[in-house]
User: Fold these one by one.
Assistant:
Number 1:
Amino acid sequence: MSRITQKGQGSPLNLFSTYTDLSLGTMVGTRFDLADGREVVLVQNAGTALGSGVAVQGPAAQANAVGLSPATTGTTGYTASAPIAAAIGGKVIQIATGATAVLVNRFQGGYLTVVEGTGLGQTLKISGHLAASTTSALVINLEDAFTVATSTDSRFTLTINPYGSRFGTDFTTDGVIISPATTLTGTIVGVSLYPIPASTASVAQYGFIQTKGPAAVLGSSTVAIGLDVGLPSGTAGAVLAYAVATGPRVGTTMVATASAKYNLVNIDL
């Protein structure tokens, strides 16, 4: 993803600001380096306001978007102009949707992965696509080219941009949210730096969250200095002492932390 430093030539956006300009939808996921080494990323918020210093999760995965097959000539909506088996260098693939319809461009800025069969292991960024009904042909246009050809035995998974997509049902559908207290439904993408207003159905809200470097983060337990913290913690947006195989690691404490306090953590996401 793009990386724009605030040191030297500067950044086109101001840190600690929020925006409603829909043109920023194409920049969601762009990372910025701050002069002191911290890293932030532009996100689209969902329908609940974010406060400062809480862990932030990306959108929940769309149902029935895992292990999809290539379309066939008998698939509803099949078009002969798009390949069902990609050649090396190709940037278009035609697959068949599952039991959930796909909204136009919902996966724009997200990823297509080849998860099984010929060409498996590839990860390609999605530039756009049309809408498709259930069990219908879906033509995916890609920013990246296939480096290995695919075949009819290939299987594909579609993932929404983890930093937010403006092409859900409305602007609240696929934005970032505060990390749930117990069961995570998306990828942990960072920690909020400052309040970001809630998006509404008709107005999207954009702002920055932090992905690397020192940041105050809500804690839910006492953790000694220099230890890892992670999620989920039993408290929405809060971290606790990291335990292997219980959830993602967020960073390392820079001070001894206390429950219900905002403690300095070296974020590493």
Note: The mean pLDDT is 95.
Number 2:
Amino acid sequence: RNLLGISLVTLGGLYVLLSAIIILVTILIGAPVITGIGISIAVLIIQFLVSPFFTDLSMKWFYKAKFKYEVPEYLKKFIEEVCASNNMKYPRIGYIDDGAPNAFTYGHTKNDARIVLTRGIFELLTEEEVKAVVAHELGHAVHYDMLFMTVAQLVPLFLYGVYEICTSNDNDNNNNSYLQSIGMLAYILYVISNYVILWLSRTREYYADELSIETTKNPNALASALVKIGY
């Protein structure tokens, strides 16, 4: 049960690197260090707060998602049982009328999670396989994956922004050579951070698989569902 520790150490390392780059840039351009730190914190908070609502809108506008969808009774009962055992609220269930099998989760925390399912999930999979897939998505909510991955994915975004600013041809600062060097360092860290995030994401996928298997007691259902979806 060391997922929380793994996530905190990974995020801590990423944000230490990011903060160091931001502080170096603010020093070289003559701005107060607190300015860079304040901007980073503000962007992080705003992005986290508004992103689920923008995702809701995009689901409705572009994919015609319905968020008052009544899932089959067998699935509703299963979700209620998993939520009760993990002390979480019943998630908002979205439905997209698309034959391609897909399922995903987003939100702030486990108590305002959205789980979106497509028509293809119900057409292609058996009831046990549907429960296994939904349990996997509930696993993401239970483990606060939306929070951790949102925070983690901001690091490469900031690092690439630092790279663009520092290597801009319009940069006439007297410390231009230093900024160029920091820009290249930021780009290297940007590439590295992307691989770190891929590793963290894969680790959290394994833990979501684990919760699915624990709740359904049927690992074969999850395996066969993933094969069908992938195929």
Note: The longest helix spans residues 176-216.
Number 3:
Amino acid sequence: MNGFSASEAALEGFRLTRERPGTIVAWSVINFVGVTTIGGLMLASLGAPLIDYIKKGGLNSIHPEELAGVLTASWPAFFGIMAVVILFLSIMTAGIFRIVLRPGEKGFAHLRLGKDELRLSAVNLMLLPMGLVFLAIIDLVGAQVASRSGNLAGLVAAALVAAPMIWVGVRLSLATPMTFAEHRISLKDAWGLTRGRFWPLFGMILLAVIFYIIIWALILIIYAALTQLGGGPDNMLGAKGVGISPMAIVILLLTLALQMILPVLQSVMIYAPFAVAYQQLHGDQPANPLRARMEPS
């Protein structure tokens, strides 16, 4: 078996961010434009029912079946929007994989729309329903047991059901970087590549999630501090009838920038480790020249 370091792979998101800050900023702008455009398409295509649902505070509801009913009523538009969302996410994910596995390959901030992205979209379309079914089963079992035997029993039952599903998810976790690296789709080969590596990969994923949460918490703290420095949201937006000061404008722009960059940083923290894991388990040499120079000869 080829060598694999869970901690080294999990830290890839930090390395990528440090080495390519300009790319991270470019991705943040592209992601903001893409998400805003998709949101506009969703409102335009799903129409009045979704708008009424949002106005009634439906997005704050704890009953997702209500939203599901709204979306089902306009299912052709909903599935069209989902296809656009998956393609956009695949383009962004491919950019992360490209900068780790093929950094010399050019593109607009390492982003492209080609066969690699379409293959990633196809893989995501295979894996997404599987993940949704797993979550639905876990939720159903946990809720049923909790209603009969209490919340603690429900949590235990949900954990027991989740365990084999987590194992399957980890075994298939390298399907997307393998699809990108090898220009082909093969869940079977991805499954074989992870054989005997469940615990190191699980540890890598756990560390990546911890780093994800750390980044979220750090930016949230900075965001709160900036908002407080600006006198609060109402003062920054001039809602109290007082003109917006130049300092408030600067702070408002900084908070907006943080909101734009946060989802990209979190995506990098989550997806970059999988590219390194594939690279190491496949026996490839690091393609990133910056990292290669840092390694001892």
Note: Residues 165 and 187 are 16 Å apart (CA to CA).
Number 4:
Amino acid sequence: MRIGFALPNIGPIGSNDALLKTAQRAEELGYDSLWVVERLLYPTNPQTPYPVTPDGSLPEVYKHVLDPLEVLTFVAGHTQRAALGTSILDMPYYNPVMLARRLTTLDVLSGGRLRLGLGLGWSKDEYDATGATFKDRGARADEFLQVLKAIWTTDPVEFHGKFYHVPKSIIQPKPVQKPHPPIYLAAFTPPALKRLAEAADGWNPVAIPLDGMAQMFDAVKKMAKEAGRDPDSLQMIVRANLELHEKPRGKEGMIFTGTLEQIKEDTEGCRKIGAHEVFFDPTFSPGAQSLDRWLELMEQLRKLVQY
């Protein structure tokens, strides 16, 4: 099982110095991958409650955000080996043709290290700001994935759907990775899991108990087989939102919170249920908005988890 770590592109810690030091140290420690998250804006009067906090308010760290793709492109020039992943980009906020070109550029400049995590988003304010709509977002996502793959795998490319149109064109270069960079979906609802089973390369779950992840991934693989795909080709890439505390978490506590020993147990649990990778994001761990603490957590987790 591979082990990755998040880059600090969210919160006051986000800076060129912090990105360089964390990315390069992660490679030195043997981490397999580096990941970024997307947050478009911080609404002062949010229309949609934040699904994680008890009162629905957004965490203060979301007021300071570096764009995920620019961060990965910057880091690509200062690293050699680690995969570069998004967890996740929200499809409704992008035009797939423009995004395909940006992602191809990143894959080419990094020597084929891109991993693409995609989702649908949840914030009404972000939808409004980008001109996106909740209506037909599932159908749009289906076409979005088709457009990406068409651009990456055909030459010349041509696509005509309900929502997106690409006139017969040459769009070069193509990604280094063949047939295309791996696409992971952050899927939770039945329609999204079906989309994952039929069109993606893997699943990027977060904040789901081990038993729940195992059952959902089994269901995804069953749907993939029914769709004529090889279910064993799908990968599970677990996002571990890390909160390290001195006191153990209780029975109702969130996975990847609590003591180091509990986090080690959660990581091993992911391996046992068939996860192909776990990557840690300490953004909300106490003290992690300090670069020294971020680097310390990287060291601690790498010593704790040896795969």
Note: DSSP finds nine helices and twelve strands in the chain.
